[in-house]
Here is the input.
Amino acid sequence: MMRGMIRRIAAALAFIAAPVSAEVTTPPPPATPPATVVVAFDRETIRPLIVEGLANKDTGRAVEANDPVRIASISKLIMALTALRLVDEGKVDLDRDVSDYLGWKLRSPYHPDAPVTLAHLLSHRAGLSDRGGYSIPLGASLEAKFADPRSWRETGASGEVGFEYANLGSPLIATVLEAASGERYDRLAERLVFAPLGVKACFNWIGCDAEMQARAVTLYRHTGEVAADGPDRMPPTCTIPVAKGQACDLSAYVPGTNASIFGPQGSVRIGMMDLAKIGQAVLLAEQAELLTPETFQRFAMAAFRGQTGASELFCHYGLGLQVIEMPGSSCEDTLFGAGKPWVGHPGEAYGLLSGLWFDGAATQGFVYFTTENPPPAGGEDTGNFTEREKALMARALSLSAD
Here is the structure.
């Protein structure tokens, strides 16, 4: 009893003697990491490795492995698969003048005698430029957009010019696919890619049901503000670009006129578990029966050739597929640092970095996204892989080895 009294007196004296600055405070909770998901896949399995952060900060909802997110330029790989599936259906020819499909003559004003083909467009070798913008809203003219000299570079004729990345090619490709098939681009991708692989995905939220919309990942900039897919920017709010005075209504849309409204350059919404199914199908190639052997051979080989005039990140790119970390290459494109090439496509927009990659031996792959990233110094699709991405993939490689 005496020892207990002494302890109470000593504690009271210590409290009285303590300076105000020494008062006990509760430490702040650790900062929530940006929404990040990494999923690994191989020939037999698909499994989440990293799932962290909040899908929406206002609600506090934690992100889940297959929550749909805007995957940015990986959408171009899906567009390429859609085009190649139409090749196998005999509806398009990669080497034919796309004017034959469009119904109007497409030419660079700087090279009026040089035809433009899907192969040129899918490989970013058509001489297009994004300087005049690449979104053509519903009600605007695609033909007028490509009559604008700002939509072209003066550097060389289509097919002869070196690699020059241009988002503007994607609306044109998607419109050509519509014109050749008579189907809306979003429905083409659903029929030819999404449905056969059993994945749920959509463009600009068109066709994604209420359940998927409720699981949307909100994209935030590195400064904290909402960049895309906040609750106030979801359906029934209009989610496609619309010209002034034009109703947000696709009921009268004519396929083959302006597929830019579906955002084929970067607007696919899909979860990482489902995106991994697409990566797995490309990795498996003939076994997946997504493409004929002949078409897949051309698809795969186009990516392995070097690109004249390419930027440091895009040294090996063809038909919507990219190869990074080629042995002996001087390209600044290291992401994994594993001493072997990786095949796939990167994405960057609205504070998001994303990727779909599998190794050249077709034994393992990863899909990922991570949010709240600062923009690259040179603008969208111009920066090399960031230190944050490299650290994320190093973490993924370590986890996949366990």
